[in-house]
Design brief:
elongated, 86% helix, mainly alpha, 181 residues
Length: 181
Amino acid sequence: MDRLEEHIKKNREDLDVYTPSPEIWDEITKGIHAGKSNKIRWFSAAAMIVVIFTTAALFYVGENRKKAALQSRDEALIMKVNPQLQETEIYYNNQVNFLYSEAKPLLAGHPDIKKELLSDMSQIDSLCADIKNDLKDNVSNQEVIEALINNYRIKIKILEDMLVLLKQNENDHPKNDTHAL
């Protein structure tokens, strides 16, 4: 046993005579609660922020899933009503994918051209999405279908022209494998 502990046990009755004043007890309780209340406030604020961001993220993800589901359902309905459109879209998408895969190695050395190409393709895809929305309103409208096909042709033309220019640029600047000292 510790000497202090022994001293307290022996002199317990003599020590209990002294009690601190109420003002001292008030200061002690304020000191105890002051540290805890600041920590509690910070933890509460952090918890609220986490809850708000989590709720916002879940809402955003839910809305995007809903939009994607509606869009795929609408596209499936369009394709069901007009199967030739589905075949046409598959054909043009395959052409675009083939041309892009052919251009991809050539674009590796030209990041600025690649960025511009992707931007152009994104704009055309946005136009295609708008046209498909118009098509949803009137599936049998031949003008809308022709506009969609025309956008795919523009996409292919851009890719073909870019491929020609990249191949021509590569042929004009052949790699020099010989090194002179």
